[in-house]
Amino acid sequence: MKNNGTTQRQEAQHRWTLALVITILSILGISVIAGLVVGFAFDKASASQTVLTAVLPLLAAWVSTVLAYYYSSESLESATKNVKSLISPEKKLKTIKASDKMIKLQQMTYFTFTDTLKVQEMLDQLKASSKGLRLPFLGDKKQPQFILHKSNVDAALVERSLKGDDITQLTLKDLFDKVVGL
After folding, report:
1. Rg of the chain's alpha carbons, rounded to an integer?
2. Is-above-0.85 flag for pTM?
């Protein structure tokens, strides 16, 4: 995606450079030809009038063509962005494959529920991994069993510490058995 944005900027820069070069060369070329016609004419007044009558619409046509090309492509890009923003979030989500966004098992920090799993160790492992605020638990065959959210665990730990329990030695089983609402 990033590469696509760079390519689009380069194309826009090339279009702008091309438009500028064509406009400058056209104006210079037409000015040189008009100057030569007027310079070598016997009746300079009549030649000047004829050149002005012919050159002015020609310059206007060139400049307007170049500007129309440049601004129409900019306008099309802007319209495309606006249309994309009109697409509903549901339709956007339908275009995203879960397999493209999911965290692979090898990259995931997950846990297996045991009666001796200490909450402190689990939270330390989650913090060390920097993998978010969810604590996924997988079974023996790596199938999902449940997910704990860190905020729920934190709330349960606060509740237990207010009761005077030593939360550093608290196991996950203790948390499930004695805390209501988790």
Report:
1. 36
2. no
